[in-house]
Write a sequence for this structure.
């Protein structure tokens, strides 16, 4: 049974990664994210991020709000972002993560897909 994936349509040198189809499986993105820190660290980061979202400011994007939806596990929240970002540059996801102070996760994704 084929697994549904959110992946990367294409990667070009100009740092343009588009979420979309099959070239780079969604699971690879998740592995990069989950490989960036221990579950305990990820969980505590998530809780801190959730506290910040209790009083979101006007500059928070939909992407950022999706990262911290109440009740989301870390994996589910990232999964939500990737699925709802279909067709948008992965750099937008990375920017949202950085703005929310989840820099090690953003670094992991950046490094996984050689976005530097």
């Amino acid at each position: 049974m084929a697994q549904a994936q959110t992946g990367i349509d294409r990667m070009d040198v100009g740092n343009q990664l588009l979420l979309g189809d099959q070239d780079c499986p969604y699971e690879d993105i998740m592995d990069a994210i989950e490989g960036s820190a221990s579950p305990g660290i990820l969980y505590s980061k998530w809780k801190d991020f959730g506290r910040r979202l209790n009083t979101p400011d006007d500059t928070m994007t939909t992407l950022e709000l999706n990262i911290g939806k109440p009740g989301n596990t870390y994996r589910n929240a990232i999964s939500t972002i990737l699925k709802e970002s279909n067709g948008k540059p992965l750099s937008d996801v990375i920017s949202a993560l950085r703005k929310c102070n989840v820099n090690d996760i953003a670094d992991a994704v950046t490094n996984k897909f050689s976005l530097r």
